[in-house]
Amino acid sequence: PTEPPSPQEHGLDFQRLLDASIYKEMFRQDMIRWGEEKRRTDPGFFCRAAVKGALQPVWVVSDTRRLSDVEWFRDAYGDAVQTVRVVATEETRKRRNWVFVTGVDDTESECGLDQGVAFDWVITNDGNEVALGEQLEMLVQSLHRSL
């Protein structure tokens, strides 16, 4: 399979595409459209890219966005898969400069996992570092027990 074109090939600043800036928002719909085209032709394209060359006993695959992604990992790795959803209130997200954009934030790429997935872990990240740390410690302890 072909690799995705790099942002540099399109004259884009990769680091700025990773943050919540206006710069990213200018290209977000194009990135979503490109990703949807890839998934239509090959539903496992991004999942395989995420695990390519991974040799560690525990992998963290961040930012899966669709039920088909979760299903791919479960089909490929069975019970070894642990799904983790990180949540924050809308108020917290707004404090972190998130602004809802119709036609972007209400699409499958942003809400595809809001239904249909029974997550193994739900971590709340509303700015309470102690509570976040306790939740993450429980997750890490569970992973250690399963090794």
From TrEMBL:
GO MF term list: ATP binding; phosphomevalonate kinase activity
GO cellular component, one term: cytosol
Gene3D superfamilies associated with the record: P-loop containing nucleotide triphosphate hydrolases (3.40.50.300)
Major localization class: cytoplasm
A biological process term (GO) from this entry: isopentenyl diphosphate biosynthetic process, mevalonate pathway
Keywords: ATP-binding, Cholesterol biosynthesis, Cholesterol metabolism, Cytoplasm, Kinase, Lipid biosynthesis, Lipid metabolism, Nucleotide-binding, Steroid biosynthesis, Steroid metabolism, Sterol biosynthesis, Sterol metabolism, Transferase
Domain of life: Eukaryota
Pathway: Isoprenoid biosynthesis; isopentenyl diphosphate biosynthesis via mevalonate pathway; isopentenyl diphosphate from (R)-mevalonate: step 2/3
EC number(s) from the headed UniProt entry: 2.7.4.2
Places the protein is found: Cytoplasm, Cytosol
Keyword Transcription regulation part of the UniProt annotation: no
PANTHER family: PHOSPHOMEVALONATE KINASE
Protein name: Phosphomevalonate kinase
Taxonomic placement: Eukaryota, Metazoa, Chordata, Craniata, Vertebrata
